[in-house]
Amino acid sequence: MNTVNQLKMEFSSRPENVAFARVAVAAFAAQLDFTLNDLEEIKVAVSEAVANAIIHGYGNSPDGIVRVGAVITDRMLEVRVEDDGRGIADVKRALQPSFSTDPDRMGLGFVFMQSFMDRVQVESAAGKGTRVIMSKVPECSGAEAAAARAGH
Amino acid sequence: MDLDLEISRDILLARPRGELDLSVADALRDALEGALGENTVRHLVINLARVSFIDSSGLGVILGRYKRLAGAGGRVSLVGVQPQVRRILELSGLLRIMREYASEEEAVARAG
Question: Where is the signal peptide (chain B) (predicted)?
Fold first, then answer.
């Protein structure tokens, strides 16, 4: 698939950059034919991935660097969120809905990424950082009609 | 994020404004915990009418307060949930364990 446009950014692992990242990616994604609802979903997915990098990757230290890249091909958005933090020893387990190292967070981060993006891939190893690759294709009008019938 | 807090009888009414994500989670948690520490408070009503974005960091703050209050027989009710926030609340299951009302008045009247 040919890359039509791309975005690359990196920023400190500070909580105030979570909003910056999701707004930037959503604004970039708007070049594709996404609905406003799609763009809201992309914002949540990016927010979760960046928050994970800050909280889990860097243990809330503001000294890490989070890299976010987005690529638009002729019909799809792909977003990558990467950190050089402590990594995830057991990716499969981390992707379980109830898995969380913080009782207040319910382990919902990956649930939202998986619910709101078409595909989510996590590459990580202990001590090797984490890379989350997510992609989404704009819904066609038929899919929107189906979603509306399903009560969204 | 901006936050209005009001205590009425044994009910804490919270009106956060803005986007509830990681950058405000600690401040929101601390403010709510401080107000819940008033020993007369048993229930929490959260007006989300001016919350335009929430993710798992924001949800976590609400869920944490729910656990605290439910453990002591209290309730958490929600008011004014916006469509983009509703989707997240539904997916997380929070709407199944909390009550939702059309207005603050109704939520406060039925909270006890």
Answer: none
Residue B84 belongs to domain spanning: 2-111
CATH, residue B31: 3.30.750.24
pLDDT in tens, B5-21: 999 889 999 999 999 99
pLDDT single digits (tens) A63-73: 999 999 999 99
Tell me how many degrees the CA angle A65-A68-A70 measures, rounded to the nearest 5. Answer: 165
**Mean pLDDT on B68-96:** 93
- CA nearest A105 in B: which residue? B60
A105 is catalytic: yes
Q: Does B91 touch chain A (CB under 8 A)?
A: yes
Active site residue A52: yes
Q: How many structural domains is chain B composed of?
A: 1
Helix (H, G, I), strand (E, B) or coil at B78: strand
Q: What is the CATH number of domain A3-143?
A: 3.30.565.10
What is the value of ipTM here, to two decimals? 0.92
Q: Does A57 touch chain B (CB under 8 A)?
A: no
Q: Do B60 and A105 touch (CB under 8 A)?
A: yes
**CB contact B64 to A (< 8 Å):** yes
Banded model confidence at residue A152, pLDDT cuts 50, 70, 90: very low
Residue ranges per structural domain of chain A: 3-143
Rounded mean pLDDT, A44-57: 96
